[in-house]
Amino acid sequence: MSDLNLKNGTSAKSAYNLRPNFSDIVERHTLAVMVENEPGVLARVIGLFAGRGYNIESLTVAEVDHEGKLSRITIVTTGTPQVIEQIKAQLGRIVTVHEVHDLTVEGPSVERELAMFKVAGDGEKRVEALRLADIFRANVVDSTLNSFVFEITGAPEKIDAFADLMRPLGLVEVARTGVAALSRGG
Amino acid sequence: MTRQMTGAEMVVQALIDQGVDTVFGYPGGAVLPIYDAIFQQNHIKHVLVRHEQGAVHAAEGYARSTGKPGVCLVTSGPGATNAVTGLTDALLDSIPIIVLTGQVPTFMIGSDAFQEADTVGITRPCTKHNWLVKETDALSSVLHEAFHVATSGRPGPVLIDIPKDVQFASGTYNAPQPSTSHYQPTVKGDITSITELVEAMEKAERPLFYTGGGVINSGPAASQLLRELVAATNFPITSTLMGLGAYPASGDNWLGMLGMHGLYEANLAMHGCDLMINIGARFDDRITGVISEFSPNSTKAHIDIDPSSINKVIRVDIPIVGDVGHVLEDLMKVWKSRGRKTNSSAVGNWWSQIKEWQAIECLKFTQQGKVIKPQYALSRLEALTKNHDRYITTEVGQHQMWAAQYLGFEDPNRWMTSGGLGTMGYGFPASIGVQMGHPESLVINVAGEASWLMNMQELGTAMQYNLPVKQFILNNERLGMVRQWQELLHGERYSSSWSESLPDFVKLAEAFGAKGILCSDPDDLDEAIMEMLNHDGPVLFDCLVEKHENCFPMIPSGKAHNEMLLGDADTQGAIDAKGSVLV
Ligand SMILES: Cc1ncc(C[n+]2csc(CCOP(=O)(O)OP(=O)(O)O)c2C)c(N)n1
Ligand SMILES: [Mg+2]
């Protein structure tokens, strides 16, 4: 029960507001959005973010249930807790959205991203690139006499770290898929 | 039950099966098959408007006044783009309407065909949901689902785009079934939160009901429950522009509208309350003023069917997601079962405070001289029509705010105004829609001369269908609200806010075959209003009013509720540079 003299905003406990205190700190959240696989559904989701000025750090989408015609959109976004709550509520309002999960707060989850790196160079640098790729468990999926294409899978931070290392070694091009994420356990 | 028929026939059949009696529309190449199907039946009446924007506002007026969804039918391309303003208006005010648009045949989509527009793309952000139907077999279920989506949860506009070949082709029609779609919004509120609110109500010393359009949307039963609750608790009640009529203006606990042009007592009560009970309102910026100083010492409860309304603008302490009617019913039960308690002595003191504020009489004005004050015109209109079975629509501007202040609404669904979008040109077509839904009632559009001109072509519609709508124009020969802002915020530099080259409204009426009345003398006003009321047909009433009257009270942009301006004397330096950035 909120006493009448309680500070505003300290006693809210709706399902739409998992944490009681709103702060001004910008957080990064990974959302899993289950949507009906209808034409236009991705435009609805992206249009919502564009129209209301929310951030998209990465977005991936693919059908995950052919029979149920459901796709899973994984969105990594940033905002203050109030903005994050609002993003989830707004997503939930889209008629063809079935479920919205905030993997960042709903318990432990795993995130993976796939990336490909083209690195060109010869001599020492080429050897060093190959050595580091091995440490990061990146696979060589193409090679020429003066270039490699590495394929690497991992949490986004691991891919960022790999990119930092490749840059001085002749990094030419990067392609990243964006994050796919699942909650852990049953 | 399933039957074979063409897509065009399905449209008509689905409308009949959904209980639709009136469609507002305008034909064109891409909807000819549907118009052909309409021609061959007698169940549904089609009202030919003069511009598609008019069709959508008419459907809004019909919907808001009858509680049933409004339906429009327009052609592809320009027909669809002309509907965009009305769709946005209905989205912001949560009005259930179904707009059917024709589209070029499926095999031409994407080819920049004649009158092709990406209608679902354009209208995605201004509809609650929309569909492009590419197969005739899918059409009937989409049509039925459209009614379900438009009317369930928080109501809103939906659009169905139907390519011409889909209208021509035959397919299987399915009769309406209870919706099995995943979209089934929650209507019952969480009982723990409701109990929490009851506990707060029992203790509150300075409680206030703050109600909005959600009460009206929830249906007449919700308004009834609200009245019982107010009477039983003796708490004061204020409302947003959209919620007027849910609680009667003549009711004992009524404080009047709150917000930017709300009443002094309502705004000060909002500022000073210790328990705010928001029922179906959404903390719009016209209500809150500057957020950081909005009702600083209150515990806030918020009942809303749309979870995204909660904590969007104002952080609340007791959120309750659910339909107003359902929640109020449970709230009453819980409150009664716990012994109907309130802190009545404290509430009594609160009322004494409120009575002091009311004694200021913030709406007082004096009519002197030979020029009609707009407030006087509306007071006389109110006096002469309040006992009628009356519906009011408005345009947007000063006249709209004065109408909200000086007319009294005793029942829900009697007041149709463009609140969220503030659409000039809304009121006249809306009045046509209202009159279609209530052929025997008195329907008055309180208009400004500038707004009225925005959809004046609909006078043709009113004449064609014998709709005796009364257009009560408060003619100040100014874009009055703009002029007021320029006076207060822009150093009295009246940039383009004079209504120049106005028509002779009486002759304009006559050109359409309607009746025109000109009134410029306060002494003639009553007689002229009676002449308007007694005329069986559309009337254009040109009421010449004071040109530079300002609308007060006013909370200037960027200010708090307790910094309200009550009259011209208060306006010097009232709005600082920061405030003038806001709209
Ligand atoms: C379509 C549209 N364009 C512009 C505006 C901005 N606007 C708000 S009130 C107003 C003036 C309205 O003038 P009038 O209808 O004569 O009403 P008054 O304020 O004089 O009563 C304007 C231009 C608007 N609300 N809608
Ligand atoms: Mg005017």
Layout of helices and strands:
The complex is a heterodimer of chains A (186) and B (583).
Chain A: E1 27-36, H1 41-52, E2 58-65, E3 70-79, H2 81-93, E4 97-102, E5 109-120, H3 124-135, E6 139-144, E7 147-154, H4 156-166, E8 171-176, E9 180-183
Antiparallel strand pairs in A: 1-3, 1-4, 2-3, 5-7, 5-8, 5-9, 6-7
Chain B: E1 2-6, H1 7-17, E2 22-26, H2 32-39, E3 45-48, H3 52-66, E4 70-74, H4 78-82, H5 84-93, E5 97-103, H6 119-123, E6 129-132, H7 136-151, E7 157-163, H8 164-168, E8 170-174, H9 191-203, E9 207-211, H10 213-218, H11 220-233, E10 237-239, E11 254-257, H12 264-272, E12 275-279, H13 285-288, E13 299-304, E14 318-321, H14 324-337, H15 344-358, H16 374-385, E15 390-394, H17 398-406, E16 415-416, H18 427-437, E17 442-448, H19 449-454, H20 459-464, E18 470-475, H21 480-489, H22 505-512, E19 515-519, H23 525-534, E20 539-544, H24 577-581
Parallel strand pairs in B: 2-3, 2-4, 4-5, 5-7, 6-7, 9-10, 9-12, 10-11, 12-13, 13-14, 15-16, 15-17, 17-18, 18-20, 19-20
Antiparallel strand pairs in B: 1-8
Helix pairs in contact in B: 1-2, 1-7, 3-5, 3-18, 9-14, 11-14, 12-15, 16-17, 16-23
